[in-house]
Design goal:
313 residues, binds zinc ion, alpha/beta, globular
Length: 313
Amino acid sequence: MLSSTSILVIAEGSMIQRERVADNVFFFQSDIYAQVTAGAIIGPNWAVVIDTLAMPEETLAIRDYIEQELSVPVRYVINTHYHADHAWGTYFFPGATVIGHSKCRKWLEEKGSHSLEATRKQSQTFRNVKIILPQITFDEGQLSLRVGKKNLAIFPLPGHSADNLAVLVEEDRILFSGDACMPLPYIVDGDIDDLVASLKKVGKMGLENIVQGHGDIVLRGEIEGYIKENLYYLSQIRKAVRKASRRKYPMDMLEEVSVESCGKSRVLIVGLAEELHRRNLIALYRQMVGELPLASDEEDEDFDDEVYDDDEG
Ligand SMILES: [Zn+2]
């Protein structure tokens, strides 16, 4: 979800949720960091892991479950995108071949080690982490991977980030969406038009379940409402930014736009929704208008420099 610099240790000691979604299809969810999720598809001789969790000990717990309890080695790891909370645990699977978008490889290579260095300064937890680059990459069309009797269709689903991939377990109609699906759409590192197109596509896929990149599994009966609600949120923030851009002090107006007024609850993603919503508004303003929104109390200050400095910190 968050950009690769954003991992912070919220609590020590790992707890992860595990759920069997269908035969040989598992879902894991972090109790520690932003309800981030991962998945596993188990074949007779080997397994595929879809994403890792934010904290090393959480990814280790997934590996132990698959390799010790289910007794199969992990042969493939699919990175849905390059963000730290999804991709940094890949190094726990040294024997696996890693699959990702070509931009995921590029960004892990260009930004990953820099972000990791910054994160290590904040926390000892990440001292052993190594950035692993996908060996199999693609950027359009579809990649098929057969695991036992199941076919995985891997395809781009951009918007949250330009490198986001989704994985459809065809036999079960279960979609691992990466962060294209989240309880609150998040576009700070992405593109709102791409995300709208991706959500519409997901809505037409005839799915049984969506495993979101964060949050709980979306069930068949909830999917239509879920897609509508996420599209409504995106249209509301777009409207708000358009309106604010006509004001002299757009930030004054954006500050008034609550997450609730855009159709979402602030309790989503363990209470992070309001903060993510604020970042969405500022990022979207920047994307649509080409500059940062000015607030009335910031005029005459060296506004741009200050904000950029904050971003670096
Ligand atoms: Zn992400």
